[in-house]
Amino acid sequence: MFLSRALAATLAAVALLTQSGTAHSTDRQPLRYVSRLEEPVIHTDANSRRVHAFSSFELSFILHNGRQKVRLSLAPNHDIISKDAVVHIMGADGKVRAIEPLDRLEHKIYQGQAFVLREGHNDWENVGWARVNIQRDGVHPIFEGAFRIDGDDHHIQTDETYRKTKQRADPEIEWSAEEYMVVWRDSDIGDGPHGHDGDDGPSQGELKKRNLSARSPLCSSDGLDFNADDSHPIYRGLDTRDLDSGMSVSGLPSELMRRQDQTQMGNGAGVNLASSVGSTIGCPTTRKVALLGVATDCTYGKQFNSSMAIRQNIIAQVNTASQVYESSFNISLGIQNLTISDNNCPAQATEQAPWNVDCGGGVTITDRLNLFSAWRGNFKDRNAFWTLLTTCNTDAAVGLAWLGQLCVEGSVKPGAGNTNETIAGANVVVKTSQEWQVIAHEIGHTFGAVHDCQAGTCADGTVTKQQCCPLSGNSCDAKGQFIMNPSTGSKITNFSPCTIGNICSAIGRNSVRSSCLASNRDVKTITGSQCGNGIVEAGEECDCGGPDGCKGNPCCDAKTCKLTSGSTCDFANEECCDRQCKFASAGTVCRASIGSCDPAETCSGTSGVCPNNAFAPNGQACGESGQNLACASGQCTSRNQQCKTLMGSLTTGNDTYACSNSGCQLSCASPEFGKDTCFTMMQNFLDGTACQGGGKCSNGACTGSSFAGEVGTWLTDNKNIVLPVACAVGGLVLLALLCCCWTAFARRKSRRLRKQKKKAAAAALAAKSSSSQKKQAMVSINEVPPPGWQPQGGAYGQNQRTMNGNLQAPPAAATRDYSRSPHNNGQWQPPQRQYTSARYA
């Protein structure tokens, strides 16, 4: 029995904190302090203070009125712009007016390390990473970016950018005829109404959603039905308290079912997030690149003076966000497509780009995500996902994303329960002063990351449902220290160990797709190879990342990017290369099997490249005989098995099973849930799982089904109805056949009896006829004239006999003449019987 969606929504608001497939972010709390960046200097080998897109150099400056000296060691980031990247300039009518290549030479995007010279010390100390976008070089450089000192992120902004993105309560900065830069830290974010609450952690800001109710989600992504599904592979768990609260299992709303569990399409159902804390198993062992598309709406462009300024800002934000993905997952972010909308917003939404409208007008951030997802679904590209940049927030929400939709092509409407949602690999980010952090947070949801646990979610059962990431296996509250915290706060700089395990394990079991992630091998950059950037480009034999990255690597010459003498490969970039810089022997496992449906990949012995990851065909039988298991996305499973994995912890006997063979949304039942009760969740079955009509599940939709197959599936799903009806109908048919047989037998017997009677009657009649003939014959004999009888006058007369007493035969017909006969107009008549007194001797 299923409750209506409206009732489900009501129960969701009362019973649980619901987290949706989209991540919602809100603006930060006010800053308490801002520092002016002083004495910036570019240090180059030629001391020219000039740099180009592929320069490596150092940048120094002073903060806090001369109290802190900072030096950034920088090199170009080649991952940030794809070699085939293009820019689409879109008009207000939604039509593309121009297509331009994204020229790497125009963008001075760098990455590197941050150093500080502490008071009383003579050596510079490495204290964190750095990402910088140089807008102007020379004697008076201007740049923006971010760097980290002792875990505290520092944000560099020009005075103009700061004024455009500052909050009303942020400190004012001085006006100057000359452009300058300021720096503020995450630790400078003040406490607010959503700040400290006992041990709840540091103050919360940027990612926090307005507190609409006591149990409303802190991130907008939690408000999406798709993400809020408890059965989403990311969450894989349910709160048994809900089963005892008087609310039927079937009544649990889809809003409670999150899609954030990165096991989105896999049988990761039932995964315990605490068990994978800190594990990187599943993440790539060599650098991969996630190519993305970025689009801006008409409101975003109004914040900049030129199209070039828009491009520079976008590239700078992605460059900074990429750092945390590189360090956590060995995955870089790179821009493949960039669509920039005209600054003039259309009066009405266009069919070509319905998401490109001005703020207000009843279009919420959720509406923008749905419209943008449908638009993104029209592109058959190989992008890992698309991001929409806007300035239109809804209340305090400044970010939204579908969960676990990495590498998902096209778009889909899940159907019942989600009729207004269009799911795709897409997210929306509102421009704020912490733009790159919001981008990193929302992309985290796209990669399948759930929010970190807080004191409230630890207490209300959210962690039990695997809907938030605990600090460790023994401690729940993450205390707001990490990027996937529902709201920003001080010193939020990294993904939590739980999030790292969450994403890596989901990728490893194919709950989150990774097939679109590009290799960094033989990458063709726009202007040729750059030795030392860690990317093996055309013309290079290896590239371990310069002197620092090549420490302990005997295979690659850091200066020439050539293999050292005697080396045939480099283990830093090749899975089939051993520590002696030789190809691993044939048969060496380079990618281990995770089950019978995922055969291990082995080295060929003649190459350093590990073969592509391959799975057994979906639908191939696996497991022990009688288990009815089949391969799906590299896992040996079934619909029932996935229900057992997801919900088995709720039952004492783990007797959970799938409600039917139809659909691709998890719907499970158990005798312990009640008769005819199904627990329907917003989590999907694994891609490749069998569905109605002989089809296979694909991203929550059943594809490849047929009418004949659907009939078969319906019969299978309704055995409790079909079997009794079939028995009854079969019995009636059998009875009818018996009746027909009996009737036919009776008729045949009746016909046989009638035939016998007819034969008997005919025989009697024949006998009677024979007797009559005999009598007639006797009569005929008596009528024969006596011997000697002769006719007189050519005609028979009465009493005429021959002398010997014999009758004389009448004359032949040809000679007789009856015309004159007195009898019957000349017709011959037998003579009348006449008897004499003569006696026969």
From TrEMBL:
Residue ranges annotated for the Disintegrin domain, each copy included: 528-618
Listed Basic and acidic residues bias regions: 187-199
Residues annotated to bind Zn(2+): 441, 445, 451
Annotated PROSITE patterns: ADAM_MEPRO, DISINTEGRIN_2
Keywords assigned by UniProt, alphabetized: Disulfide bond, Hydrolase, Membrane, Metal-binding, Metalloprotease, Protease, Signal, Transmembrane, Transmembrane helix, Zinc
Superkingdom of origin: Eukaryota
Biased composition (Low complexity): 764-777
GO molecular function, one term: metalloendopeptidase activity
Leader sequence residues: 1-23
Domain (Peptidase M12B): residue spans on this chain: 287-503
UniProt-listed InterPro entries: Disintegrin_dom (IPR001762), Disintegrin_dom_sf (IPR036436), MetalloPept_cat_dom_sf (IPR024079), Peptidase_M12B (IPR001590), ZnMc_ADAM_fungal (IPR034028)
Spans annotated as Disordered: 187-208, 764-841
Transmembrane segments: 721-745
Gene Ontology biological process terms in this record: proteolysis
Record's compositionally biased regions (Polar residues): 797-807, 821-841
SMART domains per record: DISIN
Active-site residues, as the UniProt record annotates them: 442
Biological role: Probable zinc protease.
Protein name (Swiss-Prot/TrEMBL): Disintegrin and metalloproteinase domain-containing protein B
Species assigned in the record: Pyricularia oryzae (strain 70-15 / ATCC MYA-4617 / FGSC 8958) (Rice blast fungus)
Origin organism lineage: Eukaryota, Fungi, Dikarya, Ascomycota, Pezizomycotina
